[in-house]
Design brief:
Largest sheet: 7 strands, mixed
Radius of gyration: 20 Å
Number of strands: 13
Distance between the termini: 13 Å
Number of domains: 2
Strand content: 15-25%
Number of helices: 8
Strand order of the largest sheet: 3-4-2-1-5-6-7
Order of helices and strands: EHEEEEHEEHEHHEEHEHEEH
CATH superfamily of the largest domain: Dihydrodipicolinate Reductase, domain 2
Shape: globular
Helix content: 25-40%
Structural class: alpha/beta
Bound molecules: adenosine-2'-5'-diphosphate
CATH class of the largest domain: Alpha Beta
Length: 333
């Protein structure tokens, strides 16, 4: 099997470090790995597979060395500028920022849902928003069986979704310090405001969830709405998802559909207080689904509670899974 040259852009960040951890765990065919971040981090040392690597400043020449696959998580501005430069040099970029997700020339991929979309990439493959990834993993098998009619998302999102800055706001906020990343204290609070507000009163995070769900599922007209909320949890996004179907369903069968789906673990035993929670999902790669119950206010509807580790499945793991699928397709060619 061919070995590949990898690069991590944003290697010192919350997601960047997790890219490295997941790459180590999954034993990818890596010939070499290069680590990039801002000038602030140049010279820092990070261990990868037992060897110390030096972080380099990202520049326009960073990709002049035959890099095959680059995982980016250094913000949308960095991706907008550098992903095309990398792609131009023959590198495939898997980008965790929001910069390219809605570009019609860029596939937006969750490997359990639409792996085939990887095949039409033009050098950039987008990794979806963390809250969208875990939602569509649960929605896809249900859509295949019962056909989605309408979806209502309400999220409870961890501070790590806002990177190191968000994480530190909760850590130091618990000790009484004022927030630096969020516009309000997050310790002991819920903030119904993730990313900036848009003209119609929705936040960008909510708009991302709506648009990305439609794109990944290939359902441009799906009726979907969202309210996204930051909560004082370090790791793991939780989502209440209310779904209406076109077709009728049997609740036990629906539970089995989820149980048999790729990447899902059903935790649904309320009599024994078993349901998904962020503390159970931390460090895991699966999407956990529970509280599965009929929505009795509509003809064919269900409520589910969906939890995943936002830095792993919601970001780093999904990107590494895309890299694995990409390599699998390359090997078949
Ligand atoms: P640095 O540590 O040098 O600032 P997080 O989302 O956890 O805050 O991480 C953001 C990541 O993106 C970090 O690795 C950060 O590097 C990197 N980054 C931020 N701005 C740039 C930039 N202009 N060029 C390259 N990397 C950047």
């Amino acid at each position: 099997m061919k070995k590949y040259k990898f690069a991590i852009v944003g290697a010192t960040g919350m997601v960047g470090r997790t890219f490295l951890k997941v790459l180590e765990e999954r034993n990818l065919p890596i010939e070499e790995i290069y680590l990039f971040a801002s000038s602030r981090s140049a010279g820092k040392k990070i261990d990868f597979l037992g060897k110390e690597r030096v972080v380099e400043e990202l520049t326009e020449n960073s990709f002049d060395r035959g890099i095959d696959i680059a995982l980016f998580s250094a913000g949308a501005g960095t991706s907008l500028k550098y992903a095309p430069i990398a792609a131009e040099k023959g590198c495939v970029v898997i980008d965790n920022s929001s910069a390219w997700r809605m570009d019609p020339k860029v596939p937006l991929v969750v490997p359990e849902v639409n792996p085939e979309d990887i095949k039409w990439h033009n050098g950039i493959i987008a990794n979806p928003n963390c809250s969208t990834i875990q939602a569509v993993v649960a929605l896809k098998p249900l859509h295949d069986r019962y056909v989605l009619k309408r979806v209502v998302y309400s999220t409870y999102q961890a501070v790590s979704g806002a990177g190191m800055g968000g994480y530190n706001d909760l850590l130091y906020g618990l000790k009484g310090e004022s927030p630096k990343k969020f516009c309000h204290p997050i310790a002991g609070n819920c903030i119904p405001h993730i990313d900036v507000f848009t003209e119609n009163g929705y936040t960008k995070e909510e708009v991302k969830m709506i648009n990305e769900t439609r794109k990944i599922l290939g359902l441009p007209n799906l009726r979907v709405t969202a309210t996204t909320v930051r909560v004082p949890v370090f790791h793991g996004h939780s989502e209440s998802i209310n779904i209406e179907f076109e077709k009728p369903f049997d609740l036990d069968e629906l539970r089995d559909v989820l149980r048999n789906a790729d990447g899902i673990v059903v935790q649904d035993d309320p009599a024994n207080n078993v349901y998904p929670m962020p503390i159970l999902a931390e460090g895991k790669d699966e999407v956990f689904v529970g509280r599965i119950r009929r929505d009795e206010s509509v003809e064919s509807g269900v409520n589910i509670w969906v939890v995943a580790d936002n830095v792993r499945k919601g970001a780093a793991t999904n990107a590494v899974q895309i890299a694995q699928k990409y390599i699998e397709y390359m090997e078949k060619e």
